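Exercise 7.
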Amino acid sequence: MSSQTWLTQEAADRLAAELANLETEGRTEVIKKIEAARAEGDLKENGGYHAARDEQGKIEARIRQLKQMLENATIGAPPASADGVVGAGMVVSAIVAGDEMRFLLGSREIATDDLNVYSEKSPLGSAVLGAKIGDKVSYTLPNGKSISVEILGAEFFA
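Solution. The predicted structure, written as tokens, is:
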């Protein structure tokens, strides 16, 4: 099952450009590296060959990730009003375990500044998703400790 991602037009353009580069120049470069390493002979003990194959795998995985993200993304300007409800693509101000923090709820792909980013599927993300300004929610850490969160504000990331 795929998940919906909200992206600004700028982030979508940046990711599309990365995808185009990986599908053309990125693949071409790694294929040249593989061919050069093959020409050296014995592939079992050829570190350059294995490194190039690993790089090829990483490029192909990133291509699949970018394609999936762009195919399932909602691209464009966010709604004019968030109605105070926390959702994906929003910068959330909250008091988490007694400390005030600001973070982006969504994908690291849209973040362009030094904001911390939490997925909607993370414990913190799923706790605040759908909460309203003023709501107090909590989530449980893997060690069993409960963390309280008070929502102070939520605005769309621009």
